[in-house]
Amino acid sequence: MEASAEVSAPVASRRRGEALRRAIFDAVIEQLGSVGYAKLSTNRVAAAAGTGKAALYRRWSNKEELVRDALLDLLPEPPRVDLSASLRDGLLAQLTYLNSTLFDSKGAAFQAFAAAAADQPSELRAFLHETVSVPCQERIAELLRLHTAVPDKDRPLIAAAGPAMLMYHCMSGSLKSTDTQIEAVVDGLLLPLCRER
Amino acid sequence: MEASAEVSAPVASRRRGEALRRAIFDAVIEQLGSVGYAKLSTNRVAAAAGTGKAALYRRWSNKEELVRDALLDLLPEPPRVDLSASLRDGLLAQLTYLNSTLFDSKGAAFQAFAAAAADQPSELRAFLHETVSVPCQERIAELLRLHTAVPDKDRPLIAAAGPAMLMYHCMSGSLKSTDTQIEAVVDGLLLPLCRER
DNA sequence: AATTTAGTGAACCAGTTGGTTCACTATAGG
DNA sequence: CCTATAGTGAACCAACTGGTTCACTAAATT
């Protein structure tokens, strides 16, 4: 008898709490990737999440806060510096992380990055720089410190070159860099620079 | 008597032809620099040019065409490769050109570049790439060919590094690179890369 | 001088936006 | 079961957009 009552219980139809938040974040990221940041609208995010704007504004006070939180949720922590890995492998790992971070999810994070750069001044730009670029550069600089004789004063410039190349790649109209292209940056640019000292 | 008639002749009040076109282009560039590409509107461009939207649409069929033409008018031709200059001076000249091109006029061209990168797919992005980045890279590659032993297959990567660094610089929230920073890219990155071979 | 051309300013249109409010109600918690 | 909470869907608002049209008229051309 109880088994029969369970079978016929109505299926929950409203998402609440974390489930709805998940759906909203997914919608933001999807919209960033498909229409870009400038054309991302709360109307469309709500529709894509299968909810209404009122639900968005219950949790976030404005659009920028929503997008920032969705990106914060999306962006992975940069990989730790693996002490046992070679310099080359370490550099490959950092640039592969950055490549994936920026360009996965149809380039949602890169879209946000470029849009932020085109919007002055921008908290979002600062946020993305501090959350993505700076950690990546710092880890690359750490690898240089551990494995090379590059002087302190030269490290920031070299550390920035990898990320710079990946972003330039996409600003020039290409898509996500391939593994081969990342290897070319490491082997053809970063490693030679380290050996030069 | 004739001198007297000249003094009292009415001053022309409506701009026509090239004068109005100039004013419109100036307004576009100013708006790109101040509100960025996403927020640039035909309403505001017309107002800033001291004219009406009808005058814009008489000449350009849409907003994108207007912006493209204004940028085409703004962007200077990259400096020719000076055969008598040293490699360092040649590289400095090309990167200084790129820096000025992208970041003068309150960064109007860079604004457009970043916005285009955030808008997929984009004719504007292709246009800017072909008009700005590609010529600069080609001239840098030519300098490498003239002055260094860098093999053919390595030149594109190295040639891209300078422009990449300048753009990354601004995407990270900084403004136009200083001469010192450009020199650092040349002396700390490009020249060492060339010597490595 | 008469005619043509292009500039002006205003009005118009449909569409969209970020943000707000509301009545209703599913859902969770007591 | 009752109460509180949060989700839903709709409606609303002022503002703004790209693009269009129009009557008038300054300016150029014939």
UniProtKB/TrEMBL annotation, chains A, B:
Q: Which Gene3D superfamilies match?
A: Tetracycline Repressor, domain 2 (1.10.357.10)
Keyword tags: DNA-binding, Transcription, Transcription regulation
Query: From the record, what ranges are coiled-coil?
Result: none
In Gene Ontology terms, what is one molecular function of this protein?
Answer: DNA-binding transcription factor activity
Which InterPro entries does this chain map to? Homeodomain-like_sf (IPR009057), HTH-type_TetR-like_transc_reg (IPR050109), HTH_TetR (IPR001647), Tet_transcr_reg_TetR-rel_C_sf (IPR036271)
Q: Which residues form the HTH tetR-type domain?
A: 18-78
Per the record, DNA-binding region residues lie at 41-60
State what protein this is by name.
DNA-binding transcriptional regulator, AcrR family
- Biological source species: Sinosporangium album
